[in-house]
Amino acid sequence: MSKTLAKNNSAIVALVRDAYGNGLSGNTERSLRFIREALKLLEAQHEVIETKGDARKQLAFDALNREAAQQSGWPEFDGSQVQENIEKWAKKGLTLDLLPGLPAEEAAA
User: Fold this and answer.
1) Domain ranges (residues) in the chain
2) SS3 call for 109
3) Which helix H or strand E contains 88, and what residues bound it?
C-alpha cells in the first residue's frame, strides 16, 4: 500500500503546486479550482487509508485524479499580468521558490 499512497500523495502535491502557482500569477479562479480538487483527493486518500487500501476506494481516488487532470470547464490560464502579480506577492514573502522546474531567475522574482 505504501507505493499507492506515495503515488496518491504525488498527485495531491502536484495539484497544490498548481494552485499555488496559479494564485501567485493572478489566476484566482484556476487556483481555487485546483485547491478544490486537491481537497477532494485528500478526502479520497483518507478513505483509502481508513479502509487499509480497499481497491474500490483506490479506484474512486484514481477517477477523481483523472477528472482533475481534465480541467473541464475551467478558465484558460491568463498570462497577461503574471510578472506584475508575481512581483506583488514576492513583496509579501510569497515566492515561486516552492515550484520545481522553474529557472532560478523566475523563482527569485
Assistant:
1) 2-79
2) coil
3) helix 82-90
Q: What is the mean pLDDT of residues 60-75?
A: 92
Dihedral class, residue 76 (left if φ above 0, else alpha if ψ from -120 to 50, else beta): beta
Q: Give the model confidence (pLDDT) of 35-46 as tens digits.
A: 999 999 999 999
The backbone region for 12, taken as left when phi is positive above 0, alpha when psi lies in -120 to 50, beta otherwise, is alpha
Query: Alpha-carbon dihedral of residues 91, 92, 98, 100, nearest 10 degrees?
Result: -30
Q: Which of 58, 15, 9 is CA-nearest to residue 35? A: 15
Cell 494552485 sits on residue = 19
Residue 53 CB neighbours (<10 A): 13
Q: Is the pLDDT of residue 82 over 80?
A: yes
Q: Is 27 helix (H, G, I), strand (E, B) or coil?
A: coil
What sign does the dihedral 15-99-101-27 (CA atoms) show? Answer: positive
Please give the grid coordinates belonging to residue 55. 481497491
